[in-house]
Write a structure and sequence with these properties.
By secondary structure, this protein is mostly helical. The chain contains six helices and two strands; from the N terminus they run ααααββαα. It folds into three domains: 42 residues; 63 residues, Orthogonal Bundle (Arc Repressor Mutant, subunit A), CATH 1.10.10; 49 residues, no CATH class. Strands 1-2 form a two-stranded antiparallel ribbon. β1 and β2 form a beta hairpin. α1 packs across α5 and α3 crosses α4. The longest helix has 41 residues. The two termini are 32 Å apart.
């Protein structure tokens, strides 16, 4: 009976620790994302527009039908979003070489260039700035802890 009570106490402590870690990770994620969110806010895109842009950036282009299915919005909604994004020069419609009746929707060269060159620097800056201010032992502790957590999570899944 004592063993069962001890295990219950350990489980309670582990649940508390898991909740605390999740809260810390959420706060860290929010702080890291701030510069990215600020940069995206400058573009004035709505949430659905960002979803469409993200889906297009991660592909070599989509038809309107494919894009609609991927983002999970109504066809008319996605069609309107595509029209507005095209007017702003953020996306382009290209003829589908296999079937000229259909078009492929792609991100503009300017957007692709931003996402490939500037975005990674903006996204990494908060970590770079913190690591630059940290002592070498702190940096090592951070990396070791994160790698250990990831390894354990990967092993479990």
């Amino acid at each position: 009976m004592a063993k069962k009570t001890r295990r219950k106490g350990e489980d309670t402590e582990l649940r508390q620790l898991a909740l605390e870690l999740e809260q810390h990770l959420t706060a860290i994620r929010q702080q890291i994302r701030r510069p990215v969110e600020a940069e995206f806010a400058k573009g004035g895109l709505t949430g659905p527009q960002r979803s469409v842009m993200q889906a297009l950036f991660k592909s070599d282009g989509r038809s309107l039908k494919e894009l609609t299915a991927q983002v999970g919005l109504a066809h008319s909604t996605v069609s309107g979003i595509v029209d507005r994004l095209e007017k702003r020069g953020l996306i382009e419609r290209k003829p589908n070489l296999n079937d000229r009746r259909h078009t492929r929707i792609i991100v503009s060269g300017e957007v692709r260039d931003f996402m490939e060159k500037r975005y990674p620097l903006i996204a990494a800056y908060p970590l770079f700035d913190v690591l630059r201010a940290a002592a070498a032992t702190e940096r090592n502790a951070i990396v070791t802890g994160i790698k250990t957590l990831r390894r354990l999570l990967d092993k479990q899944h």
